[in-house]
């Protein structure tokens, strides 16, 4: 199942079907689903969704793109399926998350005004705060 995780982590932005993943791994769809869930504790769909949400954290924080463009770029069909999944995992709407992360919660300064190579980025700071992570 390690191969399935690698494949999905490299290509999570694509709309890979279960059949495509199974064919790539030389397994049946049923066997792949059953074994993947038994080994990882989650479904293929859930795993890919989690990868997309985690990737969206960085993109929302650092990209000037709209939330819709970010969602579509991550493989969601639109902003509509992205928004509830993000909100459920991060416990904040994507727009509120972007606003919060772009302004440092400790100093109230824009992130770009104090970030240096030796400073932790807002995303790194966020990862130390479990209530913010999916």
Please give the structural blueprint:
Elements: H1 2-11, H2 18-24, H3 29-40, H4 44-62, H5 67-73, H6 79-90, H7 94-102, H8 122-127
What is the CATH topology descriptor of the largest domain? Arc Repressor Mutant, subunit A
User: How is the quaternary structure best described?
Assistant: single chain
Poorly predicted sequence stretches spanning 5 or more consecutive residues: 107-118, 129-134
- By CATH reckoning, the class of the largest domain would read Mainly Alpha
Overall mean confidence score, pLDDT: 78
Q: Output the radius of gyration.
A: 17 Å
Number of domains: 2
Describe the biggest sheet?
none
DSSP strand count: 0
Report the helical percentage: 55-70%
Fraction in beta strands: under 5%
The CATH homologous superfamily name of the largest domain equals Homeodomain-like
Q: What is the second-level CATH architecture of the largest domain?
A: Orthogonal Bundle
Distance between the termini: 23 Å
- Summarize the helix and strand pattern as letters: HHHHHHHH
Judged by helices, strands and strand pairing, the structural class is mainly alpha
Put simply, the count of helices is: 8
Tertiary shape: elongated
